[in-house]
Amino acid sequence: MTGKKLIQKLTLQNFLSYSRAEIELQPLNVLIGPNGSGKSNLIEAFSLLKALPTNLLLPIRKGGGVNEFLWKGENKNPTAQIGIIKSFSRKAAKTLKIFGVLR
After folding, report:
1. Which residue of 16, 28, 80, 87 could cross-link 93, Cys pair, CB 3.0 to 4.6 Å?
2. Domain that includes residue 75, residue range
3. What gap in Å lies between CA 10 and CA 85, rounded to an integer?
């Protein structure tokens, strides 16, 4: 996949049902799991990525506001983050913090 955009890794922290997850991605990925395991939440993370950089607030508003995207675990003041490692070739990778919110 030389020369093509590829997200190599997705990191989710305090985002929806994920307290912390690092997901290694391949050129083709299949989501399989029982109900409530976070498949739709993973798709929601990609939906927010798709809205960047121009219109991030629209999907957040449509989703019920910032608090709806925060993990409902023990942390009383969570910061939700979605991080990616991307590359345009196999030789170069870059880590970006693309989403952070405070409640």
Report:
1. 87
2. 6-102
3. 7
